[in-house]
Design a protein that fits this description.
The chain is mainly alpha-helical.
Length: 433
Amino acid sequence: MSNLPPDPADRARLRRWQAATVAALFVGYAGYYVCRSVLPVASVGMMNDPGSGIDEAAYGRLVAVGIYLYALGKLLNGIGAEYLSGRIAFLLGMGLSAGVVALFGLAAGAGAMLVLWGANRFVQSAGWVGLVKITGRWFSPARLATVMGVLSLSYLFGDALARVYLGAFGRAGAGWRELFLIAAATVAALALAGYFVLKDSPRDVGLPEPPAPPRNVFGANDGGDGRVPLRALLGPLFASRLFWLVCAMNMGLTAIRETFNAWTPRYLEKGVGLAAGDVGLLSALFPLCGAVSALAAGWYADRLKGRFGRIIVPLTALTALVLWALADTDLRGRPVLALALLSAAALFVMGPYTFCAGVLALNLGGKRGGAASTGVIDAVGYLCGAVVSGEIAGRVVKRYGFAPLLDVLFWLAVGTLAVAVLYARHEARRAAD
């Protein structure tokens, strides 16, 4: 299962290139979140600016349309990355996102903002599928859960640091439009740096690739080289029951995560009573705590040798419990308890979430279909996320406040737990065969 070359000098060179690849992917994908988290960080300023044309309902539409386009992009770009290059997908997505976000900062009117934010989320969808495709080429199956756990920190720390970074500009007096321009300039610089470091495969530097995951849906046919017809790419994935169970789990987990990503600043302001200037920074607690969960879950999963259900089921049950507490407790004027419960929700939900479109997608898709597997799993997840965090949340919060929205998230967690139990049972039977 090892891809280490026999020569000690080549082994040392491979480790250096692997470290450089992880670093480039980590920093690059964290950069993606500067151009994504800018919307929730700037949202309070936008909704408090009468000239922006954005209120809670309009903001909900922005979130929903953005996620719908992100889901479509995941599907199309995930499949496209199998026929192109993971490196091209990753870097092109960054450059295009920077350009579109700069235009958003200059746009006038809710309609133009809707189009531009949808375009931003569409091009950003190329980032993760490109990352997954590259990672599957550089690391052996025995290390994938740990490596993907580390790389999952990129969007969790990236989200948190983006909120802190942009929130600091906001506290210093930057307006919401300026925040979008700052985000665009930052990501453009990171894309340029990544261009000189990132490689698609060890073969690009004269080193061997690792083997494919042994239980991928393509079996012995997963060489990962050459193009295959679309039916041959997607057919084995769609015929796998385990694949659809992962898709179903990802729907609930993505809806919960996206709702917290989009609405935590407004919840802390309106539902808890914190100052508008503080909520952008404090909302970083959710992704920061999620980062701890992702790293620990990835490390532990490699030691369970593929029995991911043993982690997913208990963490999903704890997620449901915390969401019940959030929905059932009046937290206005109780910021410490509110932040503690939000942090606990992140600790429990983000480990299972990072598995679905990360190591589970790679284990199912292998070299040949890892990006496509990730794209489809994420696409169905984000479609559910768009409905809940955008369409439902915007209307519910504007009319009734946050308590009913938290009830919705609790029942989503309960449904996801039921799917997770089915997944764990199917995974155990598959391992026993």
